[in-house]
Amino acid sequence: MPPLTPSPALAPAPQAAHDAATFASAWHDPVLVREVCEALAACPTVLDGTLGGGGHSAALLAEGHRVIGLDRDPTALAEASGRLAAHASTGRFEAVLGNHDAIDEVAALTGRGFDGILLDLGVSSRQIDDDARGFSFRPGVALDMRMDPAQARTAADFLNEAEGEVLAATFREAGDEPKARRLAQEIVRRRARAPFAVSDDLVGAIRAVLGPRSGPSDFARLFQAVRIGVNDELDGLRHGLVSLRERLAPGGVFAVISYHSGEDRVVKHAFRDWSTACTCPPRQPRCNCGGVAEGTAVTRKAIVASPEEIARNPRARSAKLRLWRRADGGR
Length: 331
Known about the structure:
Blueprint: H1 33-39, E1 45-48, H2 55-62, E2 66-71, H3 74-83, H4 85-89, E3 93-97, E4 114-120, H5 125-129, H6 155-161, H7 164-173, H8 180-193, H9 199-210, H10 216-230, H11 233-245, E5 248-258, H12 261-274, E6 295-297, E7 303-304, H13 307-312, E8 320-326
Parallel strand pairs: 1-2, 1-4, 2-3, 4-5
Antiparallel strand pairs: 5-8, 6-8, 7-8
């Protein structure tokens, strides 16, 4: 791919896009809107790699940016396209179907670079609340959890077919569960009698291991872990971050919002590693690698939602925003 160059400077924003409630919709209530807009303020063209209902894109468009919205969920893409149709008609917004973890496979974005990139990881409010999507632990909900409805493997398939060690690793790494191995063994034992099919099956296994006092917070955390496993989100994120980094123009900003410690660790470690010039062993007295840092981690500590935002939108409680800036000379 040829070297990327920054887009022309932003036109003055017609209005401040810092009130998150302004950009909420039935699909999703975007978090950290003010912080995202401030982080990407100097980025004329932004890739919103997790378009969802278009809340962050709407805020960025209100600030004068040009936005390319990417999402692998065709329902979300249709929702955002309708909402942002007026901006599309002026050429300032473009909706593209595809997975940000595999951007090099998205034909519509071949060879294209961006001044800023935003990822808002996880699922939207509409996806969680829509029982047909199978993300919820409400009684009787089918275990689906596919971010891309065209994907073959569902959450039920994952729970019924994955090796015990894979299940244990998923609950440990993606669910921060101390009893991950016991929970995996319980699932293997139960599926031998009857396959997992609905939310009640997984809730029953969780309660059997964590005890009768386990509740919604445990269910949410462990259902989220299954979702991450079903969609291979952590490995996908590791690979996708590198590909997306290469699409950033010199001086470009990468902003990632995560909601889970596993996701946040992947992002934090990636941004730290990209900001390190020398890769020689720690005890080596002299640098021989000649390494050059890719850029700079803008945030040492993650940016979190304000108490006021959390009071308005409790789902913002777990949100963490990290920022990284590519070196002006690229690499």
